[in-house]
Amino acid sequence: METVSYARLVRPAIDRVYVGALWAARARMETFYAERGCTLGAENSFFSGVLARPIPAEALADGLIYTSGSMDEELTQGIFVRDDEGAWHLTELGRELTLFAQRATGEAAEELWSTLPGVLPGLSIVPRLADLVGRVLAHAQATGGPAFRAMSPPYEPADAPPALLLVTRLGSLRHHRADAHRAAWRAAGLTADEIRALPDGPERAAIETDTDRRDEPAYAVLTDAERWELLSGLAALPG
Asked: How far apart are CA 179 and CA 184, in angstroms?
Protein backbone atom coordinates (compact mmCIF):
# COMPACT_ATOMS: atom_id res chain seq x y z
CA MET A 1 0.00 0.00 0.00
CA GLU A 2 1.39 3.43 -0.97
CA THR A 3 2.15 5.81 1.89
CA VAL A 4 0.91 9.33 1.29
CA SER A 5 3.49 12.03 1.98
CA TYR A 6 2.91 14.09 5.12
CA ALA A 7 3.81 17.20 3.12
CA ARG A 8 0.93 16.43 0.75
CA LEU A 9 -1.48 15.79 3.63
CA VAL A 10 -0.71 18.99 5.52
CA ARG A 11 -0.68 21.34 2.53
CA PRO A 12 -4.49 21.65 2.13
CA ALA A 13 -4.82 22.48 5.83
CA ILE A 14 -2.11 25.14 5.56
CA ASP A 15 -3.78 26.69 2.52
CA ARG A 16 -7.28 26.62 4.01
CA VAL A 17 -6.25 28.32 7.25
CA TYR A 18 -4.04 30.96 5.62
CA VAL A 19 -6.33 31.80 2.71
CA GLY A 20 -9.36 31.85 5.01
CA ALA A 21 -7.70 34.48 7.21
CA LEU A 22 -6.64 36.52 4.20
CA TRP A 23 -10.14 36.56 2.76
CA ALA A 24 -11.67 37.37 6.15
CA ALA A 25 -9.45 40.48 6.24
CA ARG A 26 -10.04 41.52 2.64
CA ALA A 27 -12.86 44.04 3.19
CA ARG A 28 -11.00 45.98 5.88
CA MET A 29 -7.84 45.98 3.76
CA GLU A 30 -9.70 47.26 0.72
CA THR A 31 -11.16 50.12 2.78
CA PHE A 32 -7.74 51.10 4.18
CA TYR A 33 -6.15 50.96 0.73
CA ALA A 34 -8.97 52.93 -0.91
CA GLU A 35 -8.56 55.73 1.63
CA ARG A 36 -5.00 56.08 0.31
CA GLY A 37 -5.96 55.83 -3.35
CA CYS A 38 -4.57 52.32 -3.80
CA THR A 39 -5.72 48.80 -4.62
CA LEU A 40 -4.50 45.49 -3.22
CA GLY A 41 -1.42 44.10 -4.95
CA ALA A 42 1.45 41.66 -4.59
CA GLU A 43 2.43 43.07 -1.19
CA ASN A 44 -0.88 41.78 0.18
CA SER A 45 0.09 38.19 -0.68
CA PHE A 46 3.77 38.46 0.21
CA PHE A 47 3.68 40.51 3.42
CA SER A 48 5.47 37.82 5.43
CA GLY A 49 8.65 38.38 3.43
CA VAL A 50 8.53 41.80 1.83
CA LEU A 51 8.30 43.52 5.22
CA ALA A 52 11.58 41.82 6.19
CA ARG A 53 13.63 42.33 3.02
CA PRO A 54 13.51 43.35 -0.64
CA ILE A 55 12.23 40.64 -2.98
CA PRO A 56 14.80 39.53 -5.56
CA ALA A 57 13.56 39.62 -9.15
CA GLU A 58 13.82 35.82 -9.55
CA ALA A 59 11.80 35.17 -6.40
CA LEU A 60 9.02 37.56 -7.37
CA ALA A 61 8.87 36.16 -10.89
CA ASP A 62 8.43 32.68 -9.43
CA GLY A 63 5.82 33.88 -6.95
CA LEU A 64 3.78 35.42 -9.77
CA ILE A 65 4.43 32.73 -12.37
CA TYR A 66 0.81 31.58 -12.61
CA THR A 67 -0.43 35.15 -13.11
CA SER A 68 0.33 37.86 -15.66
CA GLY A 69 3.41 38.68 -13.57
CA SER A 70 2.78 42.39 -14.05
CA MET A 71 3.75 44.80 -11.27
CA ASP A 72 2.73 47.89 -13.23
CA GLU A 73 -0.04 48.94 -10.83
CA GLU A 74 2.18 48.57 -7.78
CA LEU A 75 4.81 50.76 -9.44
CA THR A 76 2.29 53.34 -10.65
CA GLN A 77 0.68 53.61 -7.21
CA GLY A 78 4.07 54.07 -5.58
CA ILE A 79 3.92 50.91 -3.48
CA PHE A 80 7.16 49.40 -4.80
CA VAL A 81 10.36 50.62 -6.44
CA ARG A 82 13.08 48.54 -8.11
CA ASP A 83 16.80 48.84 -7.52
CA ASP A 84 19.57 48.49 -10.10
CA GLU A 85 19.67 44.69 -9.63
CA GLY A 86 15.93 44.39 -10.19
CA ALA A 87 14.99 43.68 -6.56
CA TRP A 88 11.65 45.03 -5.34
CA HIS A 89 11.55 47.38 -2.33
CA LEU A 90 8.53 48.74 -0.48
CA THR A 91 8.21 52.52 -0.45
CA GLU A 92 7.11 54.37 2.69
CA LEU A 93 3.52 54.14 1.44
CA GLY A 94 4.00 50.49 0.54
CA ARG A 95 5.25 49.68 4.01
CA GLU A 96 2.29 51.44 5.62
CA LEU A 97 -0.13 49.42 3.46
CA THR A 98 1.69 46.14 3.97
CA LEU A 99 1.95 46.52 7.74
CA PHE A 100 -1.79 47.13 7.81
CA ALA A 101 -2.40 44.06 5.61
CA GLN A 102 -0.43 41.88 8.01
CA ARG A 103 -2.13 43.30 11.10
CA ALA A 104 -5.60 43.06 9.54
CA THR A 105 -5.02 39.44 8.55
CA GLY A 106 -3.94 38.59 12.09
CA GLU A 107 -6.97 40.35 13.57
CA ALA A 108 -9.34 38.63 11.15
CA ALA A 109 -7.77 35.28 11.98
CA GLU A 110 -8.18 35.90 15.71
CA GLU A 111 -11.85 36.70 15.22
CA LEU A 112 -12.34 33.67 12.99
CA TRP A 113 -10.61 31.29 15.39
CA SER A 114 -11.95 32.71 18.65
CA THR A 115 -14.06 29.63 19.36
CA LEU A 116 -14.14 26.05 18.16
CA PRO A 117 -17.70 24.66 18.31
CA GLY A 118 -18.22 22.41 21.30
CA VAL A 119 -14.55 22.00 22.21
CA LEU A 120 -12.05 24.54 23.54
CA PRO A 121 -11.59 28.19 22.75
CA GLY A 122 -9.93 28.13 19.35
CA LEU A 123 -7.18 30.53 20.28
CA SER A 124 -5.85 28.19 22.97
CA ILE A 125 -4.15 26.00 20.36
CA VAL A 126 -2.79 28.85 18.24
CA PRO A 127 0.43 29.57 20.21
CA ARG A 128 1.43 25.92 19.97
CA LEU A 129 0.69 25.79 16.23
CA ALA A 130 2.68 28.98 15.68
CA ASP A 131 5.63 27.41 17.53
CA LEU A 132 5.50 24.22 15.44
CA VAL A 133 5.34 26.16 12.16
CA GLY A 134 8.18 28.40 13.33
CA ARG A 135 10.39 25.35 13.88
CA VAL A 136 9.50 24.00 10.44
CA LEU A 137 10.39 27.35 8.86
CA ALA A 138 13.77 27.47 10.56
CA HIS A 139 14.58 23.90 9.52
CA ALA A 140 13.41 24.50 5.94
CA GLN A 141 16.02 27.20 5.33
CA ALA A 142 18.30 24.46 4.02
CA THR A 143 15.85 23.17 1.40
CA GLY A 144 13.73 26.14 0.30
CA GLY A 145 13.94 27.66 -3.16
CA PRO A 146 14.08 31.32 -4.29
CA ALA A 147 10.56 32.36 -3.25
CA PHE A 148 10.82 30.65 0.13
CA ARG A 149 14.17 32.32 0.85
CA ALA A 150 12.59 35.69 0.02
CA MET A 151 9.67 34.99 2.37
CA SER A 152 11.55 33.46 5.28
CA PRO A 153 12.40 34.20 8.01
CA PRO A 154 9.18 36.25 8.06
CA TYR A 155 8.72 39.72 9.45
CA GLU A 156 7.20 39.47 12.94
CA PRO A 157 6.43 42.60 14.99
CA ALA A 158 7.83 42.51 18.51
CA ASP A 159 4.34 42.63 20.03
CA ALA A 160 2.78 40.17 17.58
CA PRO A 161 -0.06 38.09 19.07
CA PRO A 162 -0.14 34.35 18.36
CA ALA A 163 -2.77 34.59 15.60
CA LEU A 164 -0.66 37.08 13.65
CA LEU A 165 2.43 34.91 14.14
CA LEU A 166 0.64 31.83 12.84
CA VAL A 167 -0.81 33.40 9.69
CA THR A 168 2.49 35.13 8.94
CA ARG A 169 4.47 31.92 9.34
CA LEU A 170 1.96 29.94 7.28
CA GLY A 171 2.26 32.59 4.57
CA SER A 172 6.00 31.93 4.42
CA LEU A 173 5.72 28.15 4.67
CA ARG A 174 3.41 27.91 1.66
CA HIS A 175 6.33 29.02 -0.51
CA HIS A 176 8.42 25.99 0.39
CA ARG A 177 6.00 23.67 -1.40
CA ALA A 178 5.41 26.19 -4.17
CA ASP A 179 9.16 26.22 -4.88
CA ALA A 180 9.21 22.42 -4.72
CA HIS A 181 6.37 22.18 -7.24
CA ARG A 182 8.01 24.60 -9.67
CA ALA A 183 11.27 22.67 -9.40
CA ALA A 184 9.43 19.40 -10.06
CA TRP A 185 7.62 20.51 -13.23
CA ARG A 186 10.69 22.30 -14.53
CA ALA A 187 12.72 19.13 -14.01
CA ALA A 188 10.08 17.34 -16.10
CA GLY A 189 10.68 19.85 -18.92
CA LEU A 190 7.34 21.66 -18.59
CA THR A 191 6.43 25.35 -18.65
CA ALA A 192 3.98 27.13 -16.35
CA ASP A 193 1.29 27.02 -19.02
CA GLU A 194 1.90 23.33 -19.62
CA ILE A 195 1.65 22.35 -15.95
CA ARG A 196 -1.55 24.33 -15.58
CA ALA A 197 -3.08 22.48 -18.55
CA LEU A 198 -1.71 19.05 -17.62
CA PRO A 199 -4.58 16.63 -16.89
CA ASP A 200 -4.62 14.03 -14.14
CA GLY A 201 -2.63 10.98 -15.13
CA PRO A 202 0.79 9.34 -14.73
CA GLU A 203 2.77 12.44 -15.75
CA ARG A 204 1.04 14.72 -13.25
CA ALA A 205 1.20 12.04 -10.56
CA ALA A 206 4.97 11.78 -11.06
CA ILE A 207 5.35 15.56 -10.71
CA GLU A 208 3.27 15.60 -7.53
CA THR A 209 5.38 12.76 -6.09
CA ASP A 210 8.56 14.68 -6.91
CA THR A 211 7.01 17.77 -5.28
CA ASP A 212 6.37 15.75 -2.12
CA ARG A 213 9.97 14.52 -2.12
CA ARG A 214 11.31 18.06 -2.35
CA ASP A 215 8.86 19.49 0.22
CA GLU A 216 9.03 16.70 2.82
CA PRO A 217 12.41 17.64 4.40
CA ALA A 218 10.89 20.81 5.87
CA TYR A 219 8.93 18.69 8.35
CA ALA A 220 11.79 16.41 9.40
CA VAL A 221 12.46 18.62 12.44
CA LEU A 222 9.14 17.54 14.00
CA THR A 223 8.52 14.22 15.71
CA ASP A 224 5.74 11.98 14.40
CA ALA A 225 3.51 13.12 17.26
CA GLU A 226 4.23 16.78 16.52
CA ARG A 227 3.48 16.34 12.82
CA TRP A 228 0.04 14.93 13.59
CA GLU A 229 -0.50 17.61 16.24
CA LEU A 230 0.17 20.26 13.61
CA LEU A 231 -2.11 18.65 11.04
CA SER A 232 -4.99 18.08 13.44
CA GLY A 233 -4.62 21.54 14.97
CA LEU A 234 -4.77 23.28 11.60
CA ALA A 235 -7.69 21.09 10.57
CA ALA A 236 -9.56 22.16 13.72
CA LEU A 237 -9.26 25.88 13.06
CA PRO A 238 -12.22 27.47 11.29
CA GLY A 239 -11.31 28.67 7.81
From this structure: 9
d(CA 179, CA 169): 16
Instruction: Print burial letters for 130-148: b (CB count within 10 Å at least 16), e (below 16).
Output: bbbbbbbbebbeebbbbbb
Residue type, position 99, single letter: L
User: How do residues 65-83 score in pLDDT, each as one tens digit?
Assistant: 999 889 999 999 999 999 9
Residues in CB range of 58: below 8 A, 6 or more apart: 146
Residues paired with 80 in a beta bridge: 90
Q: Cβ neighbours of residue 219 under 8 Å, at least 6 residues apart?
A: 6, 7, 10, 136, 227
Q: Is the dihedral of CA 99, 12, 140, 181 positive or negative?
A: negative
Band of pLDDT at residue 120, cut at 50, 70 and 90: very low
CA separation, residue 228 to residues 12, 132, 159, 225, 231 (Å): 14, 11, 29, 5, 5
| Secondary structure class of 37 (helix, strand, coil) | coil
- What contacts 34, CB < 8 A, 6 or more positions away? none
Q: pTM score, two decimals?
A: 0.94
Reported as a single tens digit per residue, the pLDDT across 147-177 is 999 999 999 999 999 999 999 999 999 999 9
